[in-house]
Input
Amino acid sequence: MSNNNPNPFSSASRSGYSSISGGLNYSDEEGDGGGGGKKRKNKKTGSSNRPTMSALHKHILTTSSQSNRNFYLLLTLYLITFISFFSLHRSLYLLTNETTINQQETNLRISKVNARLDATISGIQRFNRTVTNGELVDEVRDLKEALNRQNKEVTEEMEETKKYIETELKTTKDEIEETVGRAQKEIGEEVVEVRKKVDEYKGETQSQFELENNFMLYQLAGTFTLIGGLISMWHVTSHLRNFHNPVVQRKILAILWMAPIYSTTSWFSLVFPKVEAYLSIVKDCYEAYVVYVFLSFLISVMGNGDREAVVDKLALHSSHLSAPFSCFGCCFRSAPTSNRVKANATLTQCQVCALQFVMFKPVLAALNFSVNHLHLWQPDEEGKEGRMIYGVDWKNPTVYILVCTNLSVSLAFFGLLKFYHLVAPELQWCRPWPKFLCIKGVVFATFWQGLAINILVKTAEGEGGGQGWAKQAQSFLICIEMLIASIAHFYVFPHYEWESGYVRETKSKTKFGDNLALRDFIGDLKVIMGGTSKK
Output
């Protein structure tokens, strides 16, 4: 490489260097000790062809500067060339080493593969030399046994896993069912509790509404009861102030007490429903007593308290008297021999018919109270539909009590009506028919009104429904009706009828048609129609 490259110190360089050195030497010769800044004078001998010192000095400096630049340029070029050569050589060296290493690894792998191949070939050869058919069969058998054993183990594991899964599923299912059952139970309890609270709230709300409605009902019924009671009390006191005929007016006072007793017991039954059954017994007993008192009132009016006088007056109407009937051969077994005996028997029969109602009504009311409120008889729900005939349970004692009550009251009014028809002309002056209607209206109206309300309630809401409402309606209506009855008593039982020398005012008999002149219109119509037909 040193032969190919030119030497930086060539002849030209050396000549330049020599010239520089000559110049420097010359300068040394000329100056003693480097000049020291002092100039010497040139010798005139032998110095005509040489340049002056200043020109030579400039030439030397110029030549030296150019030589230095050339030297550094060559040095730089040499270094670049050296570095490039070194880098190329290093790359070639590294490439050669990498190729060598890769080739060695490849050879090593090939050798390993060859070794394995040789081992395999030797094993095959050894197997071919040593293994027999029996050994192969045994080996296959062992493999089969191992496979079967492994299959058996796998099957057992699968069975155990299956049993475990089934157990877990069953346990999970039981837990879920238990949780669901517990949740359903809790939900059911909560629903029952909520329903109970709703029912309680509904009951409280309904109770409040009912209380408000009942309070208004109590006020209204109490107002009617109070007004009716005041009218009856004023009427009673008017009779007491004008007590002209005590025998008759005592009966009237007993009748006048009917309206206040009915209205008061009905109002208390409305306000206190629990005592309604007890108060109904009082009301029924006084009802029966009033029926008999009215018959006694008619008898007292006829004879002024003398029974024999009444019998004598009845004997005068013997032609209208029918023979009294016997009751199962116990009463009136022999036919009457005279008119007076016949009249006495008829009067006794009318009194017995009224009196039996007074005796039986309290007993029947007590039996009805015992059956319905003391629960002495419990209905048998099994086979009830088979016993029902036309909607009536004929094994219920209440049915027979009701039938006996109707028979008894019918018999009592039969006696009243029979006696009234016998003595109607003699009693015409005191207007007995309106008086009888007041008694009959109170008794019959209340009875048939309660029966109609019960039938209406059963038809609307079914059997056993709305009985409380029916009783309230009956009590409220009685409070209103007793006000009307007290007003009617005031006009029907006046106290001045029993004053001495009382003469009833006679009024002309007029009809409703006379108030509208209908009779005159019909007469004129007949005259006109008759005249037209003759023409």
User: Anything to note?
Assistant: The beta strands are 388-389, 392-393.
